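Researcher: Please translate sequence to structure tokens.
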Amino acid sequence: MATLPVYRWRLAPDGYATRRQLRARGLRPGGQEVAAQLERPRRRRGPLVAYLYRVELAKPVRPMTPARWSALAKANRARRTCPNCRQDAGYVIPPSLGTCVPCASPSTSPRSA
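Model: Translation complete:
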């Protein structure tokens, strides 16, 4: 098992990029193994680690097909649908509540003035 080259934070040579950096360029790792890693030291914990990939071996991002767009829209619609009232909340329902805000905190009877 070969060891990976380790570079200090912001000192990686040209030709390497993280997943986010590849994505910003419209690329993806494309099945290649991790080529190196960055380490950012921290005082009281272990270092932060970022994995680097070779830019010349990266492949273009696959385009979204109509079927993928449809599946993504369906998944997002499910995240917005309240399981109690079955209505589209218009926002992604927080997992901490589990239901839309009106269902999570039903209003009490109107106050009489």
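Researcher: Any highlights?
Model: The mean pLDDT is 90.
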